[in-house]
């Protein structure tokens, strides 16, 4: 078989892999992207497409342990942990629980905020400069509450959010109800994040792939990673479609990172990450939709409407790599929407979906050189923020691989923190 030599091979054709490929190409490097499946076939496909600097606060927050314990055995709760013997999961959960304190909350929030803010600005520039046709809109996003106590509690983070550069405004229920006719009566209030945005994620990924190819990049679908070996002149990459050779390899494997940890030579990923299963339902647009993306806060349901469709999404389920489509959890999305929206679903059901999010135990992405392995780079662990952090991650990967001064401080994202 003919030997194929590449400058850089990116493993993973999701939103992080393709963003990294684009930024590397713009840095003057040659890039081949490979994927075991198809472009955007994982968590990049069915999420709600919100671009959210507002989501800098980590999941590991003070009080989260009590909330998680209350929810964890309820199959349709926003957070569900499938009861089973899984030592890796329970070690991950203990590490996560230990971080539910004010000091670690701030550390994670600062790291997330830096990459979210960089990515928010960079993504808008990409949409403009590359002509990305992905229904991008700088609408902002609203958290909507029906419980006055929950609304008051939600405002307690406002001072900390403003320190992180997040634009935040509280709106009383009557005022918000007058602004948003799609909602049922009974709104206690809303919290508005004017700096957020939205796009159609599957269209965004498809457009990234188009631009990567137009700029000379190669994308090989149905080409799974099997082995990696560092050699004197680069990296030998064994795939199920033959052997590749590259100077550098970027591993953007998403939720599959722990499963491929031994192949990568990065056992730290088994300790640091778990797959977190999310769900969404996509419909044709109903006659009455919210004017901007909203999160139905008490039910943890995100609602987005584009010209091409209407989506309900969210939930977090720790059930390993279980590939069943849980009808009960899908129904919880519709029940939550029905509590808030006059028209909670669209006339035509287009897709029921699940995907595994790459959850790191400190809620900070893992970006940097694989410890002890020259030429191998990680770009994973983005949790629910992959689309939001995509452009910033791509630029950071390109800066690290090319040895340039990074656009943001790379230290908080280094894989060594788990070594």
Structure description:
32% of the residues lie in helices and 26% in strands. It has 419 residues and is α/β, with parallel strands linked by helices. Strands 4, 5, 6, 7, 13, 14, 15, 16 and 17 form a nine-stranded mixed beta sheet that branches. Helix 1 (15-26) runs parallel beside helix 9 (201-214), helix 1 crosses helix 13 (390-402) and helix 5 packs across helix 13 (390-402).
Structural topology:
Elements: E1 4-11, H1 15-26, E2 31-34, H2 43-46, E3 50-51, H3 64-71, E4 79-81, H4 87-98, H5 102-130, E5 141-145, H6 148-154, H7 158-163, E6 169-172, H8 173-179, E7 189-193, E8 197-198, H9 201-214, E9 218-220, E10 225-231, E11 234-239, E12 242-251, H10 261-264, H11 268-272, E13 273-283, E14 294-296, E15 301-306, E16 309-318, H12 327-340, E17 349-360, E18 366-369, E19 376-380, H13 390-402
Parallel strand pairs: 1-2, 1-12, 2-9, 4-16, 5-14, 12-19
Antiparallel strand pairs: 3-8, 5-7, 6-7, 10-11, 11-12, 13-16, 13-17, 14-15, 15-16, 18-19
Helix pairs in contact: 1-9, 1-13, 5-13
Structurally, the number of domains stands at: 1
Name of the CATH homologous superfamily: FAD/NAD(P)-binding domain
Radius of gyration: 21 Å
CATH class identity:
Alpha Beta
Distance between the amino and carboxyl termini: 38 Å
Query: Sheet with the most strands?
Result: 9 strands, mixed
Name some characteristics of this structure.
419 residues; 19 strands; globular; single chain; 9-stranded mixed beta sheet; 13 helices; alpha/beta; 8-stranded mixed beta sheet; FAD/NAD(P)-binding domain
């Amino acid at each position: 078989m003919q030997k194929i030599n590449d400058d850089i091979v990116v493993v993973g054709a999701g939103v992080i892999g393709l963003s990294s490929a684009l930024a590397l190409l713009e840095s003057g490097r040659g890039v081949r992207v490979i994927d075991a499946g198809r472009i955007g076939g994982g968590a990049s496909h069915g999420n709600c497409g919100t671009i959210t600097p507002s989501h800098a606060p980590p999941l590991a927050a003070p009080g989260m342990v009590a909330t998680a314990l209350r929810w964890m055995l309820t199959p349709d709760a926003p957070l569900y942990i499938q009861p089973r013997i899984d030592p890796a999961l329970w070690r991950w959960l203990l590490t996560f629980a230990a971080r539910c304190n004010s000091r670690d909350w701030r550390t994670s929030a600062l790291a997330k905020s830096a990459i979210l803010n960089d990515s928010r600005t960079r993504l808008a520039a990409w949409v403009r400069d590359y002509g990305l046709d992905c229904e991008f809109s700088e609408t902002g996003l609203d958290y909507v509450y029906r419980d006055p106590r929950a609304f008051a509690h939600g405002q307690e983070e406002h001072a900390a959010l403003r320190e992180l550069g997040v634009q935040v405004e509280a709106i009383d229920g009557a005022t918000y109800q007058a602004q948003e006719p799609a909602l049922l009566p009974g709104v206690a209030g809303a919290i508005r994040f004017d700096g957020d945005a939205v796009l159609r994620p599957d269209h965004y990924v498809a457009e990234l792939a188009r631009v990567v190819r137009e700029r000379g990049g190669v994308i090989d679908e149905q080409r799974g990673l099997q082995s990696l070996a560092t050699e004197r002149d680069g990296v030998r990459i064994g795939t199920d479609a033959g052997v590749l050779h590259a100077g550098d390899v970027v591993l953007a494997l998403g939720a599959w990172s722990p499963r491929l940890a031994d192949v990568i030579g990065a056992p730290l990923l088994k300790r640091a990450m778990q797959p977190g299963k999310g769900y969404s339902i996509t419909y044709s647009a109903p006659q009455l939709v919210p004017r901007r993306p909203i999160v139905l806060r008490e039910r943890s349901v995100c609602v987005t409407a584009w010209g091409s469709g209407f989506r309900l999404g969210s939930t977090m389920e720790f059930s390993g790599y279980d590939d069943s489509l849980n009808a009960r959890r899908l129904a919880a999305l519709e029940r939550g929407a029905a509590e808030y929206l006059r028209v909670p679903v669209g006339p035509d059901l287009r897709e029921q979906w699940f995907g595994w999010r790459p959850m790191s135990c400190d809620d900070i992405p893992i970006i940097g050189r694989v410890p002890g392995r020259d030429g191998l780079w990680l770009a994973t662990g983005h949790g629910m923020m992959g689309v939001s952090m995509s452009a910033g991650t791509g630029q950071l990967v390109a800066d690290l691989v090319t040895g340039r001064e990074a656009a943001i401080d790379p230290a908080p994202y280094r894989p060594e923190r788990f070594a």
